[in-house]
Amino acid sequence: xxxxxxxxxxxxxxxxxxxxxxxxxxxxxxxxxxxxxxxxxxxxxxxxxxxxxxxxxxxxxxxxxxxxxxxxxxx
Length: 75
Hints:
28% of the residues lie in helices and 37% in strands. The protein is of the alpha+beta class. The protein has a four-stranded antiparallel β-sheet.
């Protein structure tokens, strides 16, 4: 089963490296959606559980955080 996530990289990571990780997600059965490069460096993606743990292992070194993608509303 796949889930939809937002993956945000540390400021020190180059946009070329962000693209490499996005390509890895696609190569491992995921599907990258939007790319972010203005306020945040990262992307949204549907990531299979089988690859999510691998991606989470990069947290702390190159990835700042990974969180579930969801709709945010204000009242």
